[in-house]
Specification:
The structure holds two protein chains of two kinds.
Chain A: E1 12-14, H1 25-30, H2 32-48, H3 56-75, H4 85-106, H5 109-112, H6 114-117, H7 126-159, H8 179-201, H9 206-220, H10 236-241, H11 243-256, H12 263-288
Chain B: E1 4-16, H1 24-36, E2 60-72, E3 76-80, H2 87-94, E4 102-107, E5 111-114, H3 127-137, H4 142-156, H5 171-183, E6 189-192, H6 201-217, E7 221-225, H7 229-235, E8 238-243, E9 246-252, H8 253-262, E10 270-272, E11 278-280, E12 285-294, E13 298-299, E14 302-304, E15 309-317, E16 325-332, E17 337-342, E18 362-370, E19 379-387, E20 395-406
Helix pairs in contact in B: 3-4, 3-5, 4-5, 5-6
Classes of the chains: A mainly alpha, B alpha+beta.
Domain ABC transmembrane type-2 (chain A): 52-287
Protein name (chain A): Transport permease protein
Membrane topology (chain A): Multi-pass membrane protein
């Protein structure tokens, strides 16, 4: 090895333009420790400021389920395709919240972290990824709660069927095995959309307002409080155009056997999630380079 | 010759000025369209220099323009320049916070940048947790932080409070901990912006010592921005001088500092009547021009700390028989008046023959000398007044002249820390033993 020859091999080259498809995923891998520390930070700082601490993870889905059962099940009498109402609403609400949190929190990543991004470099993708993993932790806790409710109704269905509403059933099937894949799909769908939105909001702030109330409206265009079968034939295509539909329906069907498995919706959801995720990554990657100049 | 650690080639960075929240979409489309057809970006005008005092013709400003330099491995290099010269932009590009508009930077080795102390510290987390988080943000792996953990805690001197949330830390402890993390990074290249301005003098000294150790002892490359010339000349053998986004010189530090002080700016330091901000007009007299002069280099806005600052006021007297009393106020950056002075014989060290003398119509020039070794290394402003017999009828120009007093290192042979006070006079000191 000769030290005097000028080396043309550089560790890093900073250039104005880079290939759109160079996503610096290797960089992300090098910073994996940061990812875990950020998830830990989110978790710790979440309950450090509260009295009830981690209990909040439970309170939210429990109360939502109670209110939904009362309003949509009791007052509006929307069918739940023969799934016990609390189980039906809880399945919908935890899955939806997971997706919605992934989306809304990643959609403000640039704005929320403008200060830190302006001072130090690390792969920007780490931040949205840490949000997704933090939400996964939260979902994991809530899913535990769901499992308790699920097992409770399963036992009731098998041993005390008379205590259930006539016709209600809990019949898990093999599609339950899709659960981990569904979680990943919901995560990348939320992440993908969030990345697109955050990238656009650095310049066009209006989008930030759309997200807040848009997510509320979108929930009603997703079979969270009703099964897809209850939607009238005429408008079903709108609900089916929502990529979350296939995922939530499949999730609920796998565990409870309520409704049916819509293959077309599921395939559509898979494709849409992957495509939106890729688009999100590419746009995010393009914007992250000089967003500090515009924010 | 050693290897090159950083090679900067034709580096340029443009910023868009003004409000670009409105009309951006249509402009974006126009730009995209031009780029699609393979034409140049219509909103980038090449060749404009970043001079803040003259309004440019486009709203694009080149914060860095065609910068070329190389830094060898193990060198400590200072970056010198006035505010707005592009120092921070250069560091931002080098530390990958933003991308250049043109040109490239090639880097050999891992870069750690410290543009701010304590980036990413979370107030709710304990010192221990924050060391890991901050270390990871700065690019360290967990096992590397573990390895240096004791050294970090020791350097910061916060052993007792390591498991206390940092929101309960004093600001000094906070800064110490944050710097300690950065100083123990295992990177080949360390980029440091003016971060030592915070923290007490003792700690600053410790940090400078640590940085010297890093560059000299461990053979790591350091790039250091500071307004503290003493710190730069202590730490860096070579320096870069930036002006209006362009590289003026890269040479040995003392040569560069010398040049920095000598190159005044011809425009700054003089204001003519058409540019004056007149707070109040008088019917008796009006300003014609105001100037700041150094004996060595004429009109300038930069003064070495030991240089006399000559303030010239040129004014027109409108009526025969008027008496005019010129006066100035010296202000600091916060608009606090440091002193007021005028030419009355009992209030000045020289005798002004025109004091209280009825003047003929015409133009006059009054001069006031602010002695060297009197002000601190800060920015100052001047208010100017022309007061006739009827004081209510005076002319008043607000903040007409701004100037900077620059550290030369002459008074810094013993002490390099932060120097308190709006002035820094050389006073007579003596000690004697009273009782032994």
């Amino acid at each position: 090895m000769e030290l005097n020859t000028p080396h043309e091999e550089w560790d890093l080259e900073i250039k104005p333009h880079d290939s759109v498809f160079n996503l610096h995923l290797k960089d992300v891998w090098n910073y994996r420790d940061l990812l875990w520390l950020l998830v830990r930070r989110d978790f710790v700082s979440f309950y450090k400021q509260t009295v009830l601490g981690p209990l909040w993870f439970f309170i939210q889905p429990i109360f939502t389920t109670i209110v939904f059962t009362f309003v949509f099940g009791g007052l509006a009498k929307i069918g739940t395709s023969h799934v016990p109402q609390p189980l039906f609403y809880m399945a919908g609400t935890i899955a939806w919240n997971y997706f919605a949190d992934c989306l809304t929190k990643t959609s403000t990543v640039f704005k929320d972290n403008a200060n830190i991004f302006g001072k130090v470099y690390f792969p920007r993708l780490i931040m949205p990824l840490s949000i997704v993993f933090s939400n996964l932790v939260k979902f994991g806790v809530q899913f535990g709660l769901f499992l308790i409710v699920f097992i409770y109704y399963l036992i009731q269905y098998h041993y005390f069927p008379e205590s259930l509403k006539p016709g209600d059933k809990v019949e898990p099937n093999l599609l339950v095995l899709l659960f981990p894949i569904l979680m990943i799909l919901m995560a990348i769908l939320g992440l993908g959309l969030g990345l697109i939105i955050t990238a656009l909001t650095t310049k066009y702030r209006d989008l930030a307002f759309v997200v807040t109330f848009g997510m509320q409206l979108l929930m009603y265009a997703t079979p969270v409080i009703y099964p897809l079968s209850e939607a009238s034939e005429k408008y079903r295509f709108i609900i089916k155009a929502n990529p979350m539909t296939g995922l939530i329906e499949t999730f609920r069907y796998g565990f409870t056997g309520g409704g049916k498995f819509y293959m077309d919706s599921f395939v559509y959801s898979v494709v849409a999630s992957l495509v939106l995720f890729m688009i999100g990554l590419i746009i995010f990657n393009k914007v992250e380079k000089d967003f500090v100049d515009t924010v | 010759m050693g290897d090159i650690a950083i090679k900067v080639e034709n580096l340029s960075k443009a910023y868009q000025l003004g409000d670009f929240g409105t009309g951006t979409l249509s402009r974006d489309i126009e730009r995209k369209w031009a780029l699609l057809r393979g034409k140049e970006d219509p909103f980038l005008k090449v060749g404009e220099v970043n001079d803040r005092s003259t309004a440019g013709t486009s709203d694009i400003v080149w914060s860095l323009k065609d910068i070329n330099f190389e830094i060898n491995k193990g060198d400590a290099v200072g970056v010198i320049g006035r505010n707005g010269a592009g120092k921070s932009t250069l560091l931002k590009v080098l530390s990958r916070v933003t991308v250049p508009t043109a040109g490239s930077v090639k880097i050999m080795g891992r870069v750690a940048s410290l543009l701010e102390v304590g980036t990413g510290f979370h107030p709710e987390l304990t010192g221990r947790e924050n060391i890991f988080l901050n270390g990871a943000i700065l690019g360290m792996r967990k096992h590397e932080i573990k390895k240096h953990f004791d050294a970090i805690v020791d350097f910061a001197g916060v052993e007792r409070y390591i498991d206390t949330p940092v929101k309960r830390y004093s600001s000094g402890m906070y800064v110490r901990l944050a710097f300690a993390v950065a100083a123990h990074l295992e990177s080949e290249i360390l980029i440091v912006d003016e971060v030592l301005a915070v923290g007490d003098a003792e700690f600053q000294k410790k940090c400078l010592g640590k940085m010297g150790e890093v560059s000299k002892g461990e053979g790591r490359t350091v790039l250091f921005v500071s307004h503290n010339m003493a710190a730069i000349s202590n730490l860096c053998s070579k320096s870069i001088l930036l002006k209006h986004g362009q590289l003026q010189t890269m040479d040995y530090t003392h040569t560069v500092i010398d040049k920095y002080i000598r190159t005044g700016e011809n425009n700054d330091g003089q204001v003519n009547f058409e540019d004056l901000i007149i707070k109040q007009k008088s019917t008796k007299a009006g300003f014609y021009a105001l100037r700041l002069l150094s004996r060595a280099k004429g009109i300038t806005a930069d003064f070495a700390i030991n240089e006399d600052i000559i303030v010239e006021i040129e004014y027109d007297v409108y009526e025969d028989g008027t008496t005019i009393q010129p006066s100035i106020h010296l202000l600091d950056n916060l608009d606090t008046c440091i002193f007021a002075t005028f030419s009355a014989p009992s209030a000045s060290s020289t005798v002004d023959p025109f004091y209280k003398k009825p003047l003929q119509k015409g133009r006059y020039k009054s001069t006031c000398v602010i002695p060297g070794n009197y002000l601190n290394d800060k920015n100052y402003k001047i208010n100017a007044f022309l007061v006739p017999e009827d004081m209510a009828n005076m002319a008043f120009a607000e903040s007409v002249l701004a100037f900077t007093v620059i550290e030369t290192g002459d008074m810094r042979k013993e002490y390099t820390g932060d120097w308190w006070g709006v002035v820094r006079p050389k006073l007579a000191w003596n000690t004697e033993a009273i009782k032994l």
